[in-house]
Amino acid sequence: MKTLVCVALLLQLCVFAAAAGSGDASADASLSAAPGRLVLLPCNTTGGATPSLTAWTKNGREVIRSGGSTPGTPGGSSAADPQRLTVLESGSLRIAAAAPGDEGSYLCNATLPGGAVVQARVQLQVTSGPENVSTSIGPAITLPNGTLAAVRGSSVHLNCSGSSYPSQQLTWAFRGAAYSNESLASTSGPRLLWRIDNIEPGSQGVYSCVAKNPVSNETVIQSTELLVYYVPERPAKCLGVEPVDLSQLQLNCTWAGAYPTPRLRWEADRVLKAAPTEQLLLNLTRSQLLHGPTLRCMAEHPALAPGKEQLCSLTLKASDRHPDCFWERAWGPAQAQVTCSWLGLYPPPQLRWEGGLTQQVAAWKVLALTNNLTVTLNQSQLGLRERVTCTARHILSPEERSCSLNITAPYPRGDPIAAAVEASSVTLTCTEATSSPPANTTWRIGVKQEEVTPGSKYVVSAEGADVKLTILNVTMEDAGFYFCRSENAVGVVALEVHLTVKASSVNTGAIIGTFIALLIIVATFVLAKTFYSQRHQICLGGGFGQLSDGGDVLNLVDSDDEQMFQDSVPQLPPVTNGGPTTLVQIHRMPLSDHEDSEAADTSPQQLEDTAEAEEPVDLVSY
To answer: Helix (H, G, I), strand (E, B), or coil: what is residue 612?
Structure first.
C-alpha cells in the first residue's frame, strides 16, 4: 500500500513540475480514482516553493484551507470531511478515501511568501467497476465442461448484470458460425435481458456480456458457449435382415439427424449391445434368438427428458403355414406374373421362384428376402414346363416350405353353331376356365379375326369364366364366322363359331296360334260328342274299355212295366232296400254277313248251348 502511495505522489509531483506557471492558473490536470482509494491532487507552485497559505475549492466552492480549517457551510459536505481531506505542506490536497461525490473540478489557490498567488486546476473523476459481472442463460443443460445446451424450438432467456460507478454500459454480443461479434442488444444500467424465441441450430455459438465503465473505459467481458441440441422428428427405426445363407439375423437400429450423437442400445431380456452412434448393428445366430421374441432398441439423448427415450422394437414371428402361389395379370398376354406370398413372418423370409431344367429349356430362379415375391415370366420361361415352384425359408423355420402353379395352354369351349332370326338379338357364349396362367379371352369376327369393338351393335360381357358376345338387331350381313380367341404366355387357341341368320315371317306366329286354337276346339267337340253317345256304357261302369267291342248290345228292361218278361225270365229275389230293379240282357250282334250266315246254320244243339251261355242274368240296382 505504501508503495502505491509513493508512486502516486511521484506522478503527481511530475505533473506539478510540468504544469508550474508564473502566477496564472496552470493547465487542467485530470485524475481518476476508485472509491476508497487514496487520491492526491497536486497544487503546482513556481520553483517548488512552499506556499504560506493554500485554499482548495471544488466546483467554485472552497472545501479546505491549509492548517486544516474548513468553511462553515450549512449542512457541511462529505468532501469537507477533515478526517478525509488534508492540505499538505506543498499545497497538494490529499483525499484519504475517495467516495462517490468527490468527483468534480478542484482549484488550488496558493499564496507564496512574496505575496504571489499561484492557481492549479485538477479534474477528479471517481469511478468503480464494472464489478460482479454475471450472466445466466436458460433454460439450458449444463455440460461437465461448463458449456450450456438448449433444446431446439425452446425460448431461451439471456440475463447480464453488474455494478459500476458511474453506471456501466451493458451489451450482449454473439459470435457464431455465420456471425462475428454481432451486437444483439445494449443498455445503460445494472441489468440487460435478451430473449431468443424458438431457438434454432443457427443460434448456436458464443454469447458475451460486455460491461464497460463510460468514465474509466474499464471493460469486463463474460462469455458463455451455448449449444443447440435437437433430435430428428422421425422416431428411431428398427430393421431385421436375414443374410442369404440364413445362418444369422442382422438387426439394425438407426436414428440419424440428432445433435449430439445419440446413444443406442439393443436389448431383450438383457442388454445385448450399446454404443454412442446413429446406427447400431447387431448380429444374432439362431440359438441367440432364444433370448425372447421381442427385441428392443433404446435411443437416449440429452435433449430428451428421462423416461422420454426413443424406442423401437422387433417381434420375431414364425409360421406353420405354407406360402401362397397365384397368378397375376401382366401388361400383355405374352407375359405372366407369378406371386409368392408368405405373410405373418418377421423378419421377412427368403422366397425363391424357379423353373426346373428340362430337355428343351434351361433352368431359372429368382431369389429375394421379402414377404411377397412377384416375377414376370415370358413364353420362353413358361413354355414346355408343367409347373413353376416357389420355395420359402425362414431363420425360425428350419424346414423348407413350397407352393407351385401348373402351366396349361388355353382351351376355350362353346357351341360351334348358332342360329338367329333376322331383326332379333343373339348371344354367343365362350367358356375359358382351364388355362394357367389365366388367358386373355376376346371375341373376333371374320376370317381375318378382327377384334370386336363394343358399341351399339356388339355388347361384350364377362360372367365368371364365360365371355359373351351379344349381337343386336341381327341382319343377314351378320351371318358368318366368329372366333373366341384365348391367349396366355403359353399359347393362343381360338374357338370357331358359325352364325346362321334366317329371314323373319311377320304372320308365322299368328297362323300357328290360330291353328292351335282351332285344333283345341275341334278336339273338345269330338270328345264331348263321344262322351254323350256312350254315356250308358260309361255310367254302367264299363268305362271306355268296352266301347271298342262292336258285337255287344245292351238292353235295359224295366221289371215293373214289362209283364211280358215275367214268365220267361226267372224271378229275381226281392231287394232289401226296396228300390226298383232293372233286368239286363246281353245279346251278341253279328259283325258281318258271314257271321249272319253262320248264325243261320246254327244247329239246335248250338242254340241250346247259347241259351245256357246267356245265363246268368246280371242285376243292376239303382
So the answer is: helix
Question: Nearest 5°: phi and psi at 268?
Answer: -130, -105
Given a contact cutoff of 8 angstroms between Cβ atoms, the answer to whether 304 and 230 are in contact is no
CA distances from 577 to 72, 134, 267, 560, 622 (A): 182, 147, 115, 16, 11
Cell 373376333 identifies what position? 444
Element (H, E) at 480: strand 480-487
Smallest CA-to-CA distance from 236 within 172, 309, 177, 178 is with 309
DSSP3 helix / strand / coil % (the chain, rounded to 5): 15, 45, 40
Convert 529-575 into a string of H (helix), E (strand) and C (coil): HHHHHCHHHHHCCCCCCCCCCCCEEEEEEECCCCHHHCCCCCCCCCC
User: 237-315, which class in CATH?
Assistant: mainly beta
Percentage, residues of the chain above pLDDT 90? 36
**C-alpha to C-alpha distance for 168 and 174, rounded to whole angstroms:** 19
Question: Do 205 and 195 form a contact (C-beta atoms < 8 A)?
Answer: no
pTM (two decimals): 0.51
Residues 148, 160: Cα–Cα separation, whole Å: 15
* Domain boundaries, given as residue ranges, for the chain: 2-126, 129-229, 237-315, 324-406, 418-502, 549-621
Domains 129-229 and 324-406 agree in fold: yes
pLDDT band at 504 (very low <50, low <70, confident <90, very high): confident
In angstroms, what is the C-alpha Rg of the chain?
A: 67
Q: Is the dihedral of CA 175, 179, 181, 186 positive or negative?
A: negative
Mean pLDDT of the chain: 79
Burial 524-552 (b: 16+ CB within 10 A, else e): eeeeeeeeeeeeebeeeeeeeeeeeeeee
**pLDDT class of 292 with cuts at 50, 70, 90:** low
Q: pLDDT tens for residues 461-477?
A: 999 889 999 999 999 99
Architecture in CATH for domain 129-229? Sandwich (2.60)
Find cell 427405426 and name the residue: 237
What's domain 418-502's architecture? Sandwich (2.60)
Strands (E), 342-449: 350-355, 364-369, 372-378, 387-394, 397-406, 417-421, 426-431, 440-445
Joined grid coordinates for residue 6: 509513493
Alpha-carbon span 355 to 394, nearest angstrom: 21
Q: 324-406 has which CATH code?
A: 2.60.40.10
Q: Where are the beta strands (DSSP E) in 293-395?
A: 294-300, 310-315, 324-328, 335-341, 350-355, 364-369, 372-378, 387-394
| pLDDT tens profile 299-316 | 999 988 888 888 999 888
- The domain covering 2-126 belongs, at the CATH homologous superfamily level, to Immunoglobulins (2.60.40.10)
